[in-house]
Write a structure and sequence with these properties.
Layout: H1 5-15, E1 36-43, E2 53-55, H2 58-67, E3 78-84, E4 90-94, H3 101-105, E5 109-116, H4 124-128, H5 141-148, H6 162-170, E6 180-182, E7 197-198, H7 213-223, H8 230-255, H9 266-279, H10 281-284, E8 288-295, H11 304-328, E9 335-340, E10 361-367, E11 399-400, H12 401-412, H13 416-422
Parallel strand pairs: 1-8, 1-9, 5-11, 6-7, 6-8
Antiparallel strand pairs: 2-4, 3-4, 5-10, 9-10
Helix pairs in contact: 1-13, 7-8, 9-11
Organism: Grimontia marina
Protein name: DUF1501 domain-containing protein
Pfam families: DUF1501
Length: 441
C-alpha cells in the first residue's frame, strides 16, 4: 500500500501524541538540555567495513585473510578495541583510522555489523530454495542508495525518506526555520511537512539577487502576488522561502565562524557547515536538527588498499576533529553521527585487487547514545558457501537497514508507536536494532 500524505498525517494522530521528545520550532523552546542532532554520513559507492574493522581472534581472522588474499589487512595494521560481539569475538580498528581511537576508548563510538536491506529475516536456505522474500534491485548503486534512505511500505518503498518522515512525526509546528540540512542530493530528508535547507561546503551563502535593495524589493513584490498558474505560484513560494531563510541565517553566519579545527577536506568542509548550524541552533530556535553529508569514492573494484587508506584517513580525521570541537563545547553527547552506504562489499577479493558489490556491511556510530563494550550484530562467517554467504560471496544481512535507522531516530525522540508509523515493516524483525527479539529465521 502506498503511504499518502493523508494516511501519514492520520497515523500521526496516535503516534504524534505520544512522541518521546516533542519538538518545537519556537525560539522560546530552545532549552539546551533537550537539544539533539543527528548527522548522517553517506559513504557513497558501497563501503567495505570489513577492511576497516577486523577480528582479533585467530579463527575469524584466518577465515577473513584466506578469503581476501590480495587485499588482506595484516594484524600489525590493527589497533585493538575494547569491543566484542554477542559471541565474544573482539575487534580492532585499521590504523589508517587511528584518529578515531580516542572516541572508542572514551566510550563515544561503536558499530553495527552486517546491516543491509531486508523485507523479512532471511537465511541461506531460504535463498537457495527460492523461498526468500528479497528487496528489489539488490547490488545496484542508484537503487540501493534510494532503498537505504526509505522504508518498506508493503508493496514498495516510501515516497519520502525515513528521516524526513521522522521529523514530520517530531514536529508540532510547520512554522519557523527548517531544521533539516543537507550538503548534497538525497531523498533521506524528503518529508510530507518538514522543509529542508541546502548548505554548501562553505556554509550558508546569501543569494546575490537579494543583496541589492532594489532587486530584493522587486522579488518581494512579485513573490507576494496571487498567481493562477501553479508553476508560477510555486516559484513565488520558493522565492519567499529563500528570502526568509536568508533573513534568519545571515546573523548566524555573521556571528558564528566556520570551525577551522576541522580539516579542510571534502568531508571536513561539510562538517564545518554542520558545526556552524549546530552552534546556531539556539538562535534558530531548534532543539532538534538533522543533517545529511556525503563522502564518495567507496566503489573499490580495484586498488582497494590504496583507495581505502585515503578514504579512511579523511573520514577518521574529519569525524575525530568534529567531535573534539563538540566536546570542548559540551555537545558531544547531544550529537549522534551514523554512517550509511548503499551496500557492503563481497567477502572475497577480485582479480583487480579490489572487491565487488556486496549486500550486508557494517556502520559506525559516534557520540550521543553510544557505548563501546558490545557492538550491534555478530561478525559474519567468511567461509565461501557458509551460512552467511548468499551463494555469490555476499553477506546475508542479519540486521535490516530499517532496524538500524529506527535505532538512531528513536534516540532522536521517536517512541515505538511513531517508529511503527515510519517503519511499518519493523514488526517482522522484532523492533529497532538493539531491541529486536527476532533476528533471523
Amino acid at each position: 500500500m502506498k503511504l499518502t500524505r493523508r494516511h501519514f498525517i492520520k497515523s500521526l494522530g496516535a503516534a504524534g501524541a505520544t512522541v518521546a521528545a516533542p519538538m518545537s520550532f519556537s525560539v522560546k523552546a530552545n532549552g539546551a538540555e533537550d537539544y539533539k542532532a543527528l548527522v548522517c554520513v553517506f559513504l557513497a559507492g558501497g563501503n567495505d567495513f570489513f577492511h576497516q574493522v577486523l577480528p582479533l581472534d585467530s579463527c575469524n581472522y584466518n577465515k577473513y585473510a584466506s578469503s581476501r588474499y590480495s587485499i588482506v589487512v595484516s594484524q600489525s595494521m590493527v589497533n585493538p578495541l575494547h569491543i566484542k560481539d554477542a559471541n565474544g569475538a573482539r575487534f580492532g580498528l585499521h590504523k589508517s583510522m587511528t584518529p578515531l581511537m580516542r572516541l572508542f576508548e572514551r566510550g563515544k563510538a561503536n558499530f553495527a555489523i552486517n546491516v543491509g536491506p531486508l523485507l523479512a529475516p532471511v537465511t541461506q536456505s531460504d535463498i537457495v530454495s527460492n523461498r526468500a522474500d528479497l528487496p528489489p534491485f539488490l547490488f545496484a548503486h542508484n537503487k540501493q542508495q534510494e532503498v537505504w534512505q526509505h522504508s518498506w511500505m508493503g508493496q514498495g518503498y516510501s515516497e519520502n525518506g525515513w528521516l524526513g518522515m521522522s521529523m514530520d512525526v517530531l514536529s508540532r509546528s510547520n512554522g519557523g526555520m527548517p531544521n533539516a540540512f543537507y550538503t548534497g542530493p538525497n531523498s533521506l530528508l524528503d518529508a510530507y511537512n518538514t522543509d529542508k535547507i541546502f548548505v554548501n561546503r562553505n556554509g550558508f551563502e546569501s543569494l546575490n539577487m537579494l543583496q541589492n535593495a532594489a532587486m530584493r524589493s522587486s522579488y518581494e513584490n512579485n513573490a507576494n502576488q496571487y498567481y493562477d498558474s501553479p508553476l508560477t505560484a510555486g516559484y513565488a513560494d520558493v522565492v519567499k522561502q529563500a528570502m526568509y531563510a536568508q533573513d534568519q541565517m545571515s546573523p548566524i553566519v555573521a556571528s558564528i565562524p566556520m570551525d577551522k579545527r576541522i580539516p579542510a577536506t571534502s568531508l571536513g568542509m561539510q562538517l564545518r557547515a554542520v558545526k556552524q548550524m549546530i552552534e546556531g541552533a539556539r538562535m534558530l530556535g531548534h532543539n532538534r536538527q538533522v543533517f545529511y553529508v556525503t563522502l564518495g569514492g567507496f566503489d573499490t573494484h580495484d586498488n582497494q588498499v590504496r583507495r581505502q587508506d585515503e578514504l579512511m584517513k579523511e573520514f577518521a580525521e574529519g569525524i575525530a576533529a568534529f567531535y573534539t570541537s563538540l566536546e570542548e563545547e559540551g555537545l558531544e553527547d547531544s550529537v549522534l553521527t551514523c554512517t550509511l552506504s548503499e551496500f557492503g562489499r563481497t567477502m572475497h577479493d577480485n582479480s583487480r585487487n579490489g572487491t565487488d558489490h556486496g549486500w550486508g556491511g557494517g556502520h559506525f556510530l559516534f557520540g550521543g547514545g553510544t557505548t563501546s563494550s558490545t557492538c550491534f550484530g555478530t561478525y559474519p562467517d567468511f567461509t565461501r558457501g557458509g551460512q552467511d554467504d548468499n551463494g555469490e560471496g555476499r553477506f546475508i544481512p542479519k540486521i535490516s537497514h530499517e532496524q538500524y535507522a529506527a535505532h538512531v531516530v528513536k534516540w532522536l525522540g521517536l517512541n515505538n508507536a511513531a517508529l511503527n508509523t515510519v517503519f511499518p515493516n519493523l514488526y517482522k524483525f522484532g523492533g529497532a536494532m538493539g531491541e529486536a527479539t527476532v533476528v533471523a529465521r
